[in-house]
Amino acid sequence: DDSITLEIRVIRYGKRQYLLLARDVSRVQRLETMRRDFVANVSHELRTPLTVVYGVAETLAEELADEPELADSARLLRQQSERMKALVEDLLMLSRLETATAPPPDDVVNVAGLLQDLREDALALAAQSRHEVVIEAAAEVSLLGSEAEVRSAFSNLVFNAVRHTPAGSCVRIGWEVNNSGGHFRVSDDGPGIPTHHQARLTERFYRVDDGRSRGRGGTGLGLAIVKHVLMRHGGHLEIQSLPGKGSTFFCHFPKGRLCQSHLPNPSPVV
Ligand code: ADP
Q: Which of 208, 210, 239, 248 maximizes ligand 1 atoms within 8 Å of its Cβ, making it the mutation to test the pocket?
């Protein structure tokens, strides 16, 4: 298509003088669309073969249980193919979120119930690291939005808190509502995040300490997914963190996304 997109900026200098800057960003936009499509296509193509590799690795790991050396290799194969599968799933989810034109569905998300699920999932993940997971607040107010997206965003934050903090740490989660809206939050007593890294954390594959974070098993796309889910729901992510003092991640939602109960035909919060 031969339409062009202009980015316009008005800069004021002096009392009544303005500078109008117009930049043709059509090419940048077209490249961005190509990049997105390419990533989505590659991820989609990789999905099926990876599922096969993972399935075979799983069978091998079971069948070879009596042969220690081979079993180790099979387990490594299973672990790494599982990691690739998670990466491909996250890439697909992110590209779906980035390209979605329709607003999210208005499912009535029972957040108090979701907090219980998240706690159980996190405890299962942390079975060996003896993390504690505490629900600090669970308002009986539901959220209107995509249940699957909200669940995925919140669980990314809870899993991050478990993965990026030392064994035995305490993770606190909460859902609170006030006059202007509601927030879900996850706090930890982990290493914290230096201020200059915070603004970039939602970029794809941005990691504070690349080597260390990779070893912890995430895909590097968690916070990018969280950001897009919140944007689609009219909300935003806030990070409060100080090195050595732990981190708190807030998912803020506007009042219009809240409803009084999780029964059918919910009444809006007034
Ligand atoms: P990853 O899969 O690497 O966790 P994310 O996008 O979820 O990717 O997070 C990006 C980076 O932000 C992480 O690699 C880590 O450096 C940092 N991070 C996220 N959550 C925490 C946390 N609770 N405490 C400390 N650092 C964190």
A: 208
